[in-house]
Amino acid sequence: MASSRQAKIERYKQKKELENKLASLRTFVESGQADEEQVRELYLLQVKKWINISFEEIESIDQEMVILKSRDTMKQSSAPPHGPSRQVRTPLKPFILTRDAVQAKVFGAGYPGLPTMTVNDWYDQKRREEAARGQSAPQRPPTDTNDEELQKEQQEKIKEEDDEEALQKARDWDDWKDTHPRGYGNRQNMG
C-alpha cells in the first residue's frame, strides 16, 4: 500500500511538472517565436501527458473490474439456487378483529374511513338515480331570469374594467406581493 501511494505521489508531481512545461511551451509556440525543436518538444510533452492519462484510466478500470467481480460473486452467493425468490401473491383483504358479530354491527369498523362501495358502484348508482329522475320529470329550459342575471353580471364586469381606482389598487397590490415574499414581516415574534 505504501509503495503504491508513493508511486501515485510521484506520478502526481510528474504530472504537475509536465503541465507547467506544456503551458510555458504552448505560450511560446503560440507567440510564433519557437523553433522546430521547441515545437517538437511540445508535441512530445503532449504525447507523454496523454500516456499518463491513459495509464491512470487503465488503473481505474482495473480497480472497477475487481469491484464488479466481487459484486457478482456476492450476488451469486446470496441468490437462491432455484430461481427468483418473489412469488406472486394475491392481495390481502382488510379484516377487523372484534369480540363477536353483534359488537361489530353496533360499533362498526372503529374508524370512519372503511369504504362501503367501490367508485364504479357509486357511479352506477348515481347514473341510475339520474335516469330515474329524467324519466319522471323532463328537463325544462331555463326561464328569462337567467338572461337578466347574465346581463347584470356583464354590466358589473364592464364597470370593474372601467374603474381606474380599482385597477390601480390591484396593480399596487400585485407590486407589493412581488417585493414582499410570503412569510415576510415580523419574524421576531415567533413563539
UniProtKB/TrEMBL annotation:
Residues 149-181 have a biased composition (Basic and acidic residues). Belongs to the IGBP1/TAP42 family. One of its GO terms (molecular function) is protein phosphatase 2A binding. Coiled coil: none annotated. GO terms for biological process: regulation of dephosphorylation; regulation of signal transduction. GO terms for cellular component: cytosol. It comes from Chrysolophus pictus. Pfam families: TAP42. Residues 72-91, 128-191 are annotated as: Disordered. InterPro entries: TAP42/TAP46-like_sf, TAP46-like. This is Immunoglobulin-binding protein 1.
